[in-house]
Amino acid sequence: QIEQQSHVQQIKTLLKQKNAVLVAHYYTDPEIQALAEETGGCISDSLEMARFGRDCDADTLIVAGVRFMGETAKILSPEKTVLMPTLEATCSLDLGCPIDKFSAFCDAHPDHTVVVYANTSAAVKARADWVVTSSIALEIVEHLDSLGEKIIWGPDRHLGAYIAKQTGADMLLWQGECIVHDEFSAKALNDMRHLHPDAGVLVHPESPASVVALADAVGSTTQLINAAKNLPNEKFIVATDRGIFYKMQHAAPNKILLEAPTGGNGATCKSCAHCPWMAMNGLQAILQSLTETSGHEIFVDDELREKALIPLNRMLDFSA
Ligand code: 13P
Ligand code: SF4
């Protein structure tokens, strides 16, 4: 506790000295989110993290999240120094979508518009026509479908299937998944619903279709927080990373929030509703990124950056 306080004080001092801000995702641990809040940084979903990082006037961004979030920040703000608590924090969607294989998939369907989720490398974004996050994917695909475009979607197959079902768009899906959301179990969730019949069910669309089918609200992290605040239920079962409870409970202070069950049929969970890569963003690692810098800085190759900027800006302009 004393050590934690000392880290917090040192981080606050260094953030000021370096004109740096902390940009944190909702899945990071509560002390990181609290620190971002207290120091005038941002806690948000991946879309608003990108926008905040681009628009703030800091010289340095400390991105507490996973690597694609740091890369996105650098692509949008090449003039800023972008640091991450650890460069090891990756994402199973990014890992499961290597550029050579994905590019070959796109080359095999040249008449398709390539739409990629933000949870991808800079190289994959550079190969895409559009980047989307879960908060804007539905609207962008609806727009492309209305223009009669056929779509290649990567990498999350569950989110892709959900969007295809909602929009009726013609979509070829890359078969990636998020190791955290993929573990939510429809059977166990259904059993839990019977124990809490008054509870609303909130589901992130990276979850399997059978789990999404049980939802009262489906959406990005920000959209789920808003649903907890705005839906009339006093209790919710929440199928996403448990890091979200910090902000969700603030937004809906009188409501009861329950974690959705992972691993049905007695299977043990591996990530157990907390992303192992988001969990790498500790206070000590943030302090280290501010003191050592080297080994924490994000660089993106100039040519890739310029190419990846085009589909990223399309998303930001579309959602402005
Ligand atoms: P959001 O865009 O909803 O923040 O999701 C990012 C993510 O990594 C979810 O697992
Ligand atoms: Fe990637 Fe899933 Fe972790 Fe989000 S929760 S960063 S999608 S592995």
Folded structure, characterized:
Belongs to the quinolinate synthase family. Type 1 subfamily. The chain folds into 3 domains: 2-90 and 278-300, NadA-like (Rossmann fold, 3-Layer(aba) Sandwich), CATH 3.40.50; 93-173, Rossmann fold (3-Layer(aba) Sandwich); 181-259, 3-Layer(aba) Sandwich (Rossmann fold), CATH 3.40.50. 44% of the residues lie in helices and 15% in strands. A 4-stranded parallel beta sheet has the order 2-1-3-4, with helices on both faces. It has a 4-stranded parallel beta sheet with strand order 6-5-7-8. A 4-stranded parallel beta sheet has the order 10-9-11-12, with helices on both faces. Helix 11 links the parallel strand 9 and strand 10 (217-218). It is globular. It has 320 residues and is an alpha/beta fold. It has helices spanning 2-17, 30-38, 46-55, 67-76, 92-95, 99-107, 122-126, 137-146, 157-167, 186-195, 209-212, 221-230, 245-251, 283-292, 302-318; strands at residues 20-25, 42-44, 60-64, 81-83, 112-117, 130-132, 150-154, 171-173, 200-203, 217-218, 235-239, 256-259. The model has no long low-confidence stretch (mean pLDDT 97). The protein is built from 15 helices and 12 strands. The site of iron/sulfur cluster has 14 residues, from helix 5.
